[in-house]
Amino acid sequence: MTIGKALTVAGSDSGGGAGIQADLKTFQELDTFGMTVITALTAQNTLGVHGVYPQSLEAIESQLDAVLSDIGADAVKTGMLFSAEIITLVAKKLKEYKVTNLVVDPVMVAKGGAPLLQEEATKALIKELLPLATVITPNLPEAEKILGCPEITTVEDMKEAAQTLHSLGPKYVVLKGGHLKGNMAIDFLFDGETIHELTTKRIETKHTHGTGCTFAAAITAELAKGTDVITAVKTAKGFITAAIENSLAIGKGIGPTNHHAYRVTK
Questions:
Q1: Which of 62, 90, 171, 194 is in the most buried spot, having the most CB atoms within 10 Å?
Q2: Active-site positions?
Q3: Which CATH number describes the domain made up of 5-260?
């Protein structure tokens, strides 16, 4: 049996709603074989992040070598990378193993506000990782941080930001508009020439833990299967919409999305 192989290089969420746990669930639901490289352990639940424990560079490199030298990956997703040193190492190994389908989710802050990327690591992300990316998937606060720009508050601001992000090297930019006010959830996909708009009705729920991880993982899974980027992003939009629409009110805080919903409702 032939199956697409998807690798996530990210942090572990002990609460199961985000990070590598969300990625693996998404890979499975979209019929790909999921693999992991854990960059950091987090003590985390629906109430927030209670501890971050980055892995050693040796441990991260060893995981990357073990997976990529044997099984390989048809697509790779990066999530929480935490430090400039980890970003530099990951970028080096991705080049060494000639990874061609790379989805970069520039994870910077947890849903509850805890920092997941050290301040000085943003420069390394821009310089070393974004130029390798097939797709990047920042939300508005992440885009503002990367670009060092004022707050993005309008659709026109988003379009301009997407084009500026593209100039940093990625082949495609998906700028997510979930933080924008309004009744619709608008994302923009920029391919270097055309801005594609992806719009769904905004779903009123506080249970959105892991949405960014899940969306980027869905794109990665589709790329691992050989899907073109635009179709992959549209599928991911449908996947995350179903996951939010059927989100899980578990725990005492912000509950996770429902990774099984897409398969059940489509």
A1: 90
A2: 176, 208, 210-213
A3: 3.40.1190.20
Q: State the sign of the Cα–Cα–Cα–Cα dihedral 146, 52, 221, 129.
A: positive
Report d(CA 91, CA 162) in Å as an integer.
Answer: 22
**Which residue in this structure is represented by tokens 């899907």?**
227
Instruction: For residue 196, give the amino acid letter.
Output: H
What CA–CA distance (Å, rounded) separates 175 from 106?
11
Chain center to CA of 187: 14
Q: What's this model's pTM, rounded to 2 decimal places? A: 0.95
Q: Is residue 48 a contact partner of residue 56, using CB atoms and an 8 Å limit?
A: no
Least confident of 8-22, 60-74, 249-263: 249-263
Q: Which residue has the tokens 């805080």?
A: 253
Q: Is 110 buried (19+), middle (13-18) or exposed (0-12) by CB count in 10 A?
A: buried
